[in-house]
Amino acid sequence: MNRIIAALSIIALSVFGAQAQSSDDGALEITVAGGEFKPISLAAPGFFAAPGDATDLAAQIRDVALADLAGSGLFRVIPPEAYIQQLQDFDAEPQYADWQAINADALVTGNANIEPDGRIRVQFRLFDSFAAGQVEGLQFFSDPADFRRIGHKIADAIYTRLTGEGPYFDSRIVYVHESGTKGKRVKRLAIMDQDGANNRFLTDGRQLVVTPRVSPDDQEVVYISFERGEPQIFLMNLATGQQEVLGNFPGMSFAPRFSPDGRQVLMSLTKGANTDIYVMDLASRRLRQLTDSPAIETAPSYSPDGSQIVFESDRGGGQQIYVMSASGGPATRISFGQGRYGTPVWSPRGDLIAFTKSGGGQFAVGVMRTDGSDERILDSSFLSEGPTWAPNGRVLAFFRESAGANGAASLWSVDITGRNLKRLAAPGAGSDPAWSPILP
């Protein structure tokens, strides 16, 4: 079964030497679920390059890919000291018995060369040690400066092939970078690769900014800025940095989030003492009210198909999570546990809703099914909140803030099973993460 990943704007990609096998062929495919999962053992015996050509790039691409896979918590990279066979070149045939002897479930090899036009060509092969065959083979062309994206793409291909889950390594995270003391905190909008590389500031810190959300095409971000005193919703083009206010509404406007097609933005507007949910058509800037209640209705998030909205409301006397049609109308309460529920976010694959829960002096991040059943807490601390989904709907990022006068915010991620809780490699303190889709 040959596999072709969609062409990239900066990377030309084609099937390379693939003699891949589907799961029906008996190739390695591991379902990741439940509490008995054992990490997949992966060996990387060689990423080769022509002498003096792309040796350093080959090593760096290999390191990026292996760091992604090991960081997912689903893979264990076997150290080279354990290898029995020493592969000499990219076309060498693996001696599968040697890899089976060290319990390597799979092995990956690669090759990098600089083309006459200056582009780098990278090939990689993935082998199933115990099925004794190649299961994946791809070829990438790119500007050498984009070598990290090739590493992420290789990791995504391996991850998807071996776990059956969608990719998420070639993506970015927009967040609020924080500096200074609690009383004089500077909050700047920033963007980085999901592994913390290539951090770039989007605002200069002169205005307080919070709650960024990335558009489905990764071209824009909506966020709240206090530039004009009261919170207002801004729209920024990520390529040009151009920004504009989405409407001059009386009172506060906040909690923006794009629709799945990127044509609309949900938001909350406060008029008088009342806060309701509205939707704005970005082409016409026409605004339509979706809720009409004396309660506080906010934090709306679309289902992936755009047919429903999950939001938080205190219409029942306490802060809980509700689901309604995307056109408005009656809402159904889905959270019933003790404590207050907020910031619900629908999973990109539609099966779960992430949320923040508070009570007893603690904040927690958890997930529940879309009918409110099977609630699971994934992390709890003095302050854990603001969940955002990775593109594959399997991993969540969120932020923690420590207590006390010297408390600081930090970015974290966790698998939906609750495994692999880890701090993200953001440069400095950060809050309000928003995960992008897979990059185009």
UniProtKB/TrEMBL annotation:
Principal location class: periplasm
GO CC aspect terms: periplasmic space
Cellular localization per UniProt: Periplasm
GO biological process: cell division; protein import
Entry-linked InterPro entries: 6-blade_b-propeller_TolB-like, Tol-Pal_TolB, TolB_N, WD40
Superkingdom to which the source organism belongs: Bacteria
Signal peptide (residue range): 1-20
HAMAP family (alphabetical): TolB
Stated role: Part of the Tol-Pal system, which plays a role in outer membrane invagination during cell division and is important for maintaining outer membrane integrity.
Full protein name: Tol-Pal system protein TolB
